Amino acid sequence: MDPRLHATPTWDRGMELAAHKAFTTATGVAVFFADPRSPRQRGTNENTDKLLRQYLPKGTNLTTFSQEDLDAIAAKLNNRPRKCLGLRTPAESVA
């Protein structure tokens, strides 16, 4: 697992995550679902979704991407400064 990822990602309750148990089994990463009444938990999730859509528009067939392609997208996102992190990158915030 990429050491820059947190141990429990926070995801929305959308249908695309119906297989969250399979994800946890395959990766060993627990999934945390944001509380619908807690907008603070959802803000980063919504922003990350928006950033991912720049690279992977909704409906994109992920099987057309190699692991190297996906790793490159992750590296770009993990090395992008975020206002919520005091303009540090996610990679810097867990270092």
TrEMBL record:
<dbReference type="GO" id="GO:0005829">
    <property type="term" value="C:cytosol"/>
</dbReference>
<dbReference type="GO" id="GO:0003676">
    <property type="term" value="F:nucleic acid binding"/>
</dbReference>
<protein>
    <recommendedName>
        <fullName>Integrase catalytic domain-containing protein</fullName>
    </recommendedName>
</protein>
<dbReference type="InterPro" id="IPR051917">
    <property type="entry name" value="Transposase-Integrase"/>
</dbReference>
<dbReference type="GO" id="GO:0015074">
    <property type="term" value="P:DNA integration"/>
</dbReference>
<dbReference type="GO" id="GO:0004803">
    <property type="term" value="F:transposase activity"/>
</dbReference>
<dbReference type="GO" id="GO:0032196">
    <property type="term" value="P:transposition"/>
</dbReference>
<dbReference type="InterPro" id="IPR001584">
    <property type="entry name" value="Integrase_cat-core"/>
</dbReference>
<dbReference type="InterPro" id="IPR012337">
    <property type="entry name" value="RNaseH-like_sf"/>
</dbReference>
<dbReference type="InterPro" id="IPR036397">
    <property type="entry name" value="RNaseH_sf"/>
</dbReference>
<feature type="domain" description="Integrase catalytic">
    <location>
        <begin position="1"/>
        <end position="95"/>
    </location>
</feature>
<dbReference type="InterPro" id="IPR053392">
    <property type="entry name" value="Transposase_IS30-like"/>
</dbReference>
